[in-house]
């Protein structure tokens, strides 16, 4: 039996596997247990995220808050927060430009650049990588599982598998994981088959408080 810690890149999980699906109310602990070998004894599930901005969708922070409260009730889950930054920056337009809604401009009137809102999530991948290496050095696990398709995490995984000699399973949220990640991981497991079956209850009871409900938009 292998003492196991799971490290989940929350934004990567959402944008790669959950956005646009009816399965956003995911039980990440149950999904981790289902995706990994039965010999893995999951001692902790670290979930890395950041509080999002409501600038584009004013209701999105409410839905995220409900989800974070929901997974915080899971016994093995620990949530780690980075920062979510929103700024205005100049960015080049693709040529020919594609506008939404569709707009036709006179010849020669199409700009080369535009002032745009840029959203950035900072700190989560760094925190995940640092925690992975720290836990490996301290003997915190026999096996680690990392859920991501972010190639920024190649080097932390390589250090653990190649230099510290500990196994790391890549839990991939996409059909074809990044080659560089798969190359440094010990094994690759796909999570897609387990997302639908591993959903949280629609209503989660909280002693002495109002139950945590699945956002109606996610029904």
List keywords for this structure.
single chain; 219 residues; alpha/beta; six-stranded parallel sheet; two-stranded antiparallel sheet; 7 helices; 10 strands; globular
Give the topology, please.
Layout: E1 2-9, H1 10-18, H2 28-35, E2 40-49, H3 60-72, E3 77-81, E4 83-92, E5 113-122, H4 124-137, E6 143-147, H5 154-163, E7 168-172, H6 179-184, E8 187-190, H7 192-195, E9 203-206, E10 209-213
Parallel strand pairs: 1-2, 1-6, 2-3, 6-7, 7-8
Antiparallel strand pairs: 4-5, 9-10
What would you say this structure looks like, in words?
- The structure is a single chain.
- The longest helix has 14 residues, at about 125-135.
- A six-stranded parallel sheet has the order 3-2-1-6-7-8, sandwiched between helices. A two-stranded antiparallel sheet has the order 4-5. Strands 9-10 form a two-stranded antiparallel sheet.
- The two termini are about 35 Å apart.
- The radius of gyration is 20 Å and the shape is globular.
- The chain contains seven helices and ten strands.
- With about 220 residues, the protein is an alpha/beta fold.
- Strand 9 (about 205) and strand 10 (about 210-215) form a beta hairpin.
Fraction in beta strands:
25-35%
The helix-and-strand class reads: alpha/beta
Low-pLDDT windows of residues? none
The portion of residues assigned to helices is 25-40%
What is the overall silhouette? globular
